[in-house]
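Task: sequence in, structure out. Protein: Taste receptor type 2.
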Amino acid sequence: MQAALRAFFMLLFSLLSLLGIAANGFIVLVLGREWLRYGRLLPLDMILLSLGAFRFYLQLVGMGHNFYHSAHVVERSGVLTQQFFHLHWHFLNSVTFWFCSWLSVLFCVKIANITHPTFLWLKWRFPGWVPWLLLGSVLISFIIALLLFWVNYSAYQQFLIRTFSGNMTYEWNAMTEIYYFLFAQLVIWSIPCSVFLLSITLLINSLRRHTWRMQHNSHSLQDPSTQAHTRALKFLISFLILYVLSFLSLIIDATKFISMQNDFYWPWQIAVYLSVSVHPFILIFNNLKLQSVFWQLLLLARGFWVA
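Result:
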């Protein structure tokens, strides 16, 4: 890839990441301020605050890793550094996947019109479980990431004793991560993904049936209730698309199919971080509290520049 085009995609990646960092930071600041002010948060706000904080950290780690190894790509000397990054990478991605899953479950139990006894029981109990589910997700993700790091590093040290070639070490380590740890990553990420798909499918189907009934019961498409359900459907479908794209991009990224020396590395990094950067804006503009503060800040900024 030509240097100018590579620089363009690096700049685009940087702008996308900075927008995502700003959006996630905004969510953390607004909800964190409310938490400090009132000493408590609603279950939805707990999930949004936690998701924003971990995504904020994830994007900082991703930017730091990409630009550091882009500057040292010729040296190939950062095997331990790479493993340390992967420790954070696996941990943060696993946590954010779980948080998105709990967000979809919360939406489902609050909005879906399902009369099954098990669902009604879950609808009553789930909001009280949210703090413990968030804490449990963090602990489980950290333990699994630490185990993967320890197994990978131990295996690498054993191989290092038997070889003196830096290139062989690098290739072995990459092949180990692909063939020995890809399956483990796939299983780990598939569990929250399955929870997400189940809850979001139930919710979309419930909203779709409810919207269809309203339209066939002499309700106009301009009816406020019908419009609200249509907006909710659009929000959920966009949430579903971004979640699936994020899951698939992480699985492909774990195969090392596109290395840092590849011409398409930076466009691919844009695809990997797209969901983490775009989804916070969808959350902001579909949450009355966050949306209100966002527009207030824009009006203040506009008045400052005009003055």
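Residues 117-161 form the longest helix (45 residues).
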